[in-house]
Amino acid sequence: MQKNFLVAFGIGLAIIALAVGGIFIMQRGDRMQLPGKILKVRTAPLDDDSSIAVIDFRIANPSDILFEVREVTVEMTDSQGKSYLGQSVSEVDAKRLFEGLPVLGPKFNPTLITRDRIGSHGSADRMIAARFQVPLSLLDIRKRVLVRIEEVDGKVFEYVER
Length: 162
Description:
Order of helices and strands: HEEEEEHEEHEE
Number of strands: 9
């Protein structure tokens, strides 16, 4: 009697463990992740007190869920640790910006904008241009540039220049 109970109990535990493991395996792509990295940061002066930073980056969506952008912000930290929030430039203005400032070089990627989407198991090269109310000399000796992308569901992803 005792032996039959232990065998049945062991089989029951094995079935429960298989069920829980199966659930974890089936849901592994349901977690939103957005790995990426900043590829290049280009800068140029706009006037004596302001400058522009163009950040090219690559992001991937390894999950099974469509990623949709709610907001993109850019923050710069200077060499003393003070942070400056950049004013993002729209896609239309970015095209004009590259035409007017040839020192930036060519426009390689489309701008990451609100409602932009990255499909499941996809990747994309994008850029964001941001105007900072600092002179170019301060922007060029920055400590870091941070690109913050917020998803429509509220999850935030951050990418730091290395």
